[in-house]
Model the fold of this input.
Amino acid sequence: MAEFSLDVLLKGNSGKNTRGLLRIIILLTIAAAAVASRLFSVIRFESIIHEFDPWFNFRATKYLVQNGFYSFWDWFDDRTWHPLGRVTGGTLYPGLMVTSGVIYHILRFLTIPVDIRNVCVLLAPGFSGLTALAMYLLTREMSHSPSAGLLAAAFMGITPGYISRSVAGSYDNEAIAIFLLVFTFFLWIKAVKNGSIMWGALTALFYGYMVSAWGGYVFITNLIPLHVFVLLCMGRYSSRLYISYTTWYALGTLGSMQIPFVGFLPIRNSDHMSALGVFGLLQLVAFAEFVRAFLHGKQFQKLLTSMVLLTFGLGFTGLIILSVSGVIAPWSGRFYSLWDTGYAKIHIPIIASVSEHQPTAWPAFFFDLNFLIWLFPAGVFICFQNLKDEHVFVIIYAVLASYFAGVMVRLMLTLTPIVCVAAALAASTILDSFLVMSKPTPETQAKANADKSKAFSSTRNPVVGIYSYFSKAVVTGSLIIYLLMFVAHCTWVTSNAYSSPSVVLASRLPDGSQHIIDDYREAYYWLRQNTEDNAKIMSWWDYGYQIGGMADRPTLVDNNTWNNTHIATVGKAMSSREEVSYPILRQHDVDYVLVVFGGLLGYSGDDLNKFLWMVRIAEGIWPDEVKERDFFTARGEYRVDDGATPTMKNSLMYKMSYYNYNSLFPAGQAVDRVRGVRLPAESPTLNTLEEAFTSENWIIRIFKVKDLDNFGRDHSNAVAFDKGLKRKRATKKKGPRVLRTE
Amino acid sequence: MKPWNSLILCFSLLSGVLATKPSVDRFEKYQTLSRSGPVGLDSTSFAELTTAPRDYYAVVLLTALDARYGCIMCREFDSEWELMARSWNKGTKLDDLKVVFGTLDFDHGKAVFQKLMLQTAPVLLLFPPTIGPFAKLDAEPVRYDFTSPIGAEQLYSWIGRHLPEGPKPPLVRPVNYMRIVSAITILMGTVTLFTVLSPYVLPIVQNRNLWAAVSLIAILLFTSGQMFNHIRKAPYVAGDGQGGISYFAGGFQNQFGMETQIVAAIYAILSFATIALALKVPRMEDVKGQQLAVLIWGAVLFVTYSLLLSVFKVKNGGYPFYLPPF
Done:
């Protein structure tokens, strides 16, 4: 009876419906799992925005929600980059803020009382569910087997390579951009397959959305033309290709130019030239195809050769002339540094200094992708087996993205989708042949023998099937073990590595209970409550967004690094003597200086460890006044203890970090736990600053810049007087005596 | 013009030797010697060039070019330094701004290195004038420290900062005609070769297996961290401090060249086993053979994956997962 009812469900038309329903249920479960595994940080800590950049996005979103779209578009922010300000509305990718603004207003319209903070915190997990669905759609285009799509969706939902950028609270552009990336590629594949203007236009629409959301859109801008170019080289020109590409390019470029930050870049910047070039090439090829119908062989050949040579020559010289005359901007630094890997370190230290721009060591790949990393090449190989247009796309994407991910850690994010597609293809091919009950019969063998035609060496023989149940059990069993381990790995990685808000640090007490270190917020709220609304805070640029977001005070520099000179000014103030720094601080109206110091707690991401980058960036602008060499001892060591160089000891950063630090320890016992050294017995003296606040674990130290002395003395004299030191007799003037001649 | 110059030089040399006339002639002397590049100095001429009353700037590079000293930066920098001195000397001379470029090799001037207590090379010293319009009170030479390889452009801007304001001869990098010509030749040669060989080459270029192999190798190399080795110049292997070799670098963000090759090989074995299971095995017609192949490939997959997990555990001590054999 039971078998009979199963038969009804699984066979015929209702079987199809049952499977469809099952698929939907599975997909919804995957989406739910994707959302759920990203909630560790909310459950462990609280609903809080993470890290650095998200704080700016959060602040911008609040501005958007409060002031409306148009004033957001024209937003000039005078509370950052003091005294320059920032044309924020024109220098950001608004997609993320607009998305959460729209969601917020819809929820409000449905009378669901929701806080904008919660919308922002939960946006990334929500979109990751959508990404899993988009992944299903994309992979389904690559394979006949529906299991491939489901596997890909499951992989994408929980793989740490994507979770790393989309846990709850990491409210960054990537949160929605990866969904848009995958979905745009799905639409593009659909457009190429069908040759329909509708799919092409939809691709352009989502491409436009992607441009508004993330600077990584350049990846799509170059990958799609490359796909078309390779297809042309393979002699696979078709009207489908022509229709989809020209539709996408024309509409997509117009769409992307609507974003103020992008503006005219798509026609003036070398990053975008390949798309334009392929657009032109496609027109020529289409014209040649058109002419071919009217001419016979030899004439056509001649025409084609001369046309190719002519256009190539013209295009090349045109490009050179336009580049030299400056109409087309050269490659942007970030993009260029992907190809010339030594470029950033020499020319743009501010890019090289960011830790997520470092090259990727192999453990990071395995950490982020687990067993997908070795299914990935197998999946790419399977794509070579069919090699339809969409498989060419997978192959190009796979090779390019693995190169990019090798050069820069953060681009692991663009590699992850294609790894999931390829790995799902490989896994589903295995499962499809090993997870079937029926054995091969002589009939199928004979049938398989009939279509021996494929040219590809490994698949020349026809598919027969698996004979014994034992083989099936072995392979399926081991694959299930790998899959289960993958799930365990993903959960472990997410829980241990990617769920810390980094604003709040967690540590374990000896008894095993969790201890929360909340110095950042403590200090930012101190600033918020104890300083004037307009007090300018100087800190290294890493903390600019957080100060703006949490303390709501104007800053000198922030993570938007648009003005290198201004950052170098801060670097110079931090790395120079007080006598040099004080005028700089006064000129920039600085009221408070904030430093991060991890010496007490052993927190290694502190300012003294970033100090050399400050020096380097300052040296780039003032090579005579700040020299990196002076911060190293004669033997080339970077030291902070007794052996530190005088330049180091007199630098403002050093003094602020260790000011009064020895008072925590018995005399002469002060230890810096990050650098593991014993410090000099005396505390550095600060003349022009005074300590205003130090957080519980000394992670954040805030110093107030003194006003000018009331009696017109310089600060070192004033401090000496206050300490009761005898005033030094005015020593005789140095230098040779000169005859007065007035 | 030229004969006059050399005549003057002869006179000035003569007079220099005979009458030991001070600096003006010294400048002329070195200026003329250095027509096509920096003057080669030794201990005595270095002392002569840099003695106190001088009305010119002297820029001296102290270097150690001989292969024995193994100073790579010296040799790399040498051509840039030549270029710098040559383009300065060839540029339009200014009447009052006098600069002499000199090179002192360690072989010829050990005494100078000892006197200046120099432990490293190369070192660049800039001696400002002590008399004349640009004289400085502080006659101590300015020192440029080579922390990383630099080009002539950076050096030019450094020297420019220490010279007084005003027009200076521009830095002219000669066009490398050789390179252009060779590039064009190679390009045309490739095109010709391709045209001639196209009946033989095209089948190879259009071979799907070849492309598959190339793409897979590229992917394996990139995902096993080859770019990290390339960018960070990671060592191939390192000793473990007890005379042996340690194949795996300690730490999660660090790796050796050989380590990545091992990992790439592991990935390759795993991928190949997967391909075999997915594509080859279902196409085998022999029942026994198929059973054997499934067992072999399944075992290879399992054992190698277990090895990979154990290797990863070495890199990341807290990693809790493993598979039986390793």
